[in-house]
Input
Amino acid sequence: MRGLTPPRRATEDQRPGEVPGAVLRVVEPNPSDPHGRAGWFARLVAALGDSARLAGVAAVASGRWLTDVVVDVAPHVPVRDLETLRAHHAGLTGNALAQSLIDTAARTTGAVGLAGGVVTAVEFTAPPLLLSAPILVAAETVAVVAIELKLVAELHEVYGHPVPGTTAVRAAAYLGSWTRRRGLADSAAPSGFTGLIGGAARRELRRQILRRGAESSVTVIPFLAGAMAGASLNSRETKRLGNKVAKDLGGVRLRA
Output
C-alpha cells in the first residue's frame, strides 16, 4: 500500500499519537471494535479537549491550533496505491473507480456527521458539558478533513498523478490540493506548501479549515436534527471536492 504513512511496519514509538490515532479510527473504524465510530469520536473529542487546553485560548480562537492538528494528522492518513484501490473496488478503473471513491468518501463523511450528532445529543443531556461544543466541531472538522485528504490523494493515484517524495512532501502537497480544491496534474507540490511550516500557505490552509469548521457547526444542533444536517452537508461538500479534483486530473462526467 502506497501512502502518506511510511510503508514499513510501525513500531510502538512510530504509531500515531492519541489525536491522530483517534482520528484514523473515526475515519476507518474496525467493524469488530465495540467502541464503534461514535465511541472513537467521543475519545477524539476528549483528546482534542486536552490538546486545546495546552495550546491556549488565543491559539484555539485564531484557528492556529486546529490547523496544527490537521498538519500533524495529515502524514498519518493511509493512502492506497492503484493496484490496491482496484482490488478494493471490484477491478474498476478510471472515472468509474474515481466515482466509487468519491461516493464512498461522501458516505463516510456523512457517517462522521451522524457520529458527531450522537455525541452532541449526549452532551446536551448534561448542560455543564455544553462548553465543549467548539471541541465537538473541531473533532468533526479534523475527521472530515482526514477523509477528504485521503480521497484527494487516492484520486491522484487513480489518474496517474501520485505525488513523489517523502512522507512530509506528499502530505504537504495533498494538503495544498485539498486547500485549493485543485488537482496536481503535474505531480508537483503547489508553491509554498513544501514545508507547511508557516507563511501564506499555512494561512490559506487555516482559512479553508475554518470554513469547513463553520459548515460542521450544524452538528451541535440538538438531537437528531443536528446529526442529519451534518451528515447531509458533509456528504455534499465531499462530493463537490472530489468532483473538482477529479476534473482537474482528467475525470469527466462524474456524478455530482
Remarks:
- Residues 6-15, 124-131 have pLDDT under 50 and may be disordered.
